[in-house]
Amino acid sequence: MRIAMLTSDYLPNIGGIASHIYELSKALIANGHEVEVWFWDRKGSQPRLSEMGDVAVRLLPLDGARTRSDWGQAKQLGQALNRCRLQFEPNILHLHTLDPLMLALRHLGRDFSGKKVWTNHSSRFLRKKNSFFWRQKMRFYGRTLDGLLAPSRELLECSGCMGVNSEHSRYLANGVDISKFTCVDKSAARQQLGLPQDRFIVLSTRRFSPKNGIRFLAMALPAVLQQIPQMLCVFCGNLPEAKDWPAVEKVVQDNGLEPCTRFVGAVPNTQINSYLGAADLVVLPSLMEATSISGLEAMSACRPLVGTRVGGIPELIDEGVTGLLVEPGRPEALAEGIIRAYRELDLTAAGRSARRKVEEEFTWPRLAKKTVEFYQSL
User: Fold this and answer.
1) Crossing angle of the two packed helices 364-377 and 16-30, in degrees rounded to 10
2) Among 135, 143, 149, 306, whose Cα sits 20 to 30 Å from the Cα of 353?
């Protein structure tokens, strides 16, 4: 097959969508398919092609000075898509972001005979699922689609408003590169990162956006400290421009949590495995979530999870085996989950079970095969 991945979120961005597209594309190429990424630089970040991995990338130029409306941008993007088709005519045009790129599909030439697929990674569907006007707008957008994928059952249910035939809509989880995220020696990882050897380290590897619930993890820490005084919570992903960073910083300062917290900022994906290796436990305090790539990376690195009972997280956590599930948006529940994991779980055994689960269910080659089967079903 010839597959074009269409997106406005891609490497070198750090995040789930960019990682999903890159890893899925590599796995499809390894299976003998031709894949290109067609990228619209919506944010004007102007990444160099050398920073965008080893999958072929075509840039979709757009003259921002000509129009700022979604409709005008969609028309220009549609023209760019048709130009790309002159060099690479795909059987499958697989869209991964919403924005004007969805509207641009309506401007494809009538001679395009391939199938148009969208993977709904968007948490906006969860926030706006009860809005009548949102559902009507999405139904209009969805008329151009032949197939729809969603990385959580919750997102798949919400995506029903797109009007895509249910036989052509499917839940398909995110995946993880088990050769990149591996079990490493905890002592060596801590020494490498300058982390103490004698602390119980709880790790968060999430960006500080409101949906990721990082503030609730910070609010849980005083109760955890009462029971586990040697706890150290390490946060990756705090950036000055992150929406929830001021709220988390205030919780830490108001409760005098500086000695038991460490903020390391944005960590490149290539370095995350060292932080996972240094941790005893990884926490997913999300308020909404697909099949969490952060959670999969932790499991692949042999680390158990405490995660909230939202979206695709329950697909990852077998209660008492690979981790523990708690209710979202409740600091006391997160604290109880961390304390229970410390006292009741065999963390080493739970980490091994977590690794075994991703090997059996969430590797990219396995998910690439399922993706191709879905393409063929269209």
Assistant:
1) 80
2) 149
Q: What is the pTM of this model?
A: 0.88
CA angle (92 as vertex; 89, 95 as ends), nearest 5: 110
- At position 47, the amino acid (one-letter code) is P
Helices (H), 228-271: 245-254
The radius of gyration of the chain from alpha carbons, rounded to an integer in Å, stands at 21
36: which 2 tokens? 């290109």
Residue type, 107: H
| pLDDT digits 0-9 by tens, 275-287 | 999 999 999 999 9
Q: Provide the token pair at 372.
A: 């191709």
pLDDT at 67: 61
Q: Estimate to the nearest angstrom the gap between the alpha carbon of 97 and the chain centroid.
A: 12
- Calpha distance 309→196 (Å, rounded): 31
- Give the other-Cβ count within 10 Å of 367's Cβ: 23
**Amino acid in position 265:** G
| Cβ–Cβ under 8 Å, residues 96 and 7 | yes
C-alpha pair distances (Å), 55 with each of 10, 51, 131, 362: 11, 11, 38, 21
Q: List Cβ neighbours of 319 (8 Å cut-off, separation of 6 or more).
A: 325
Q: Which residue, chain included where needed, has tokens 């410390």?
A: 342
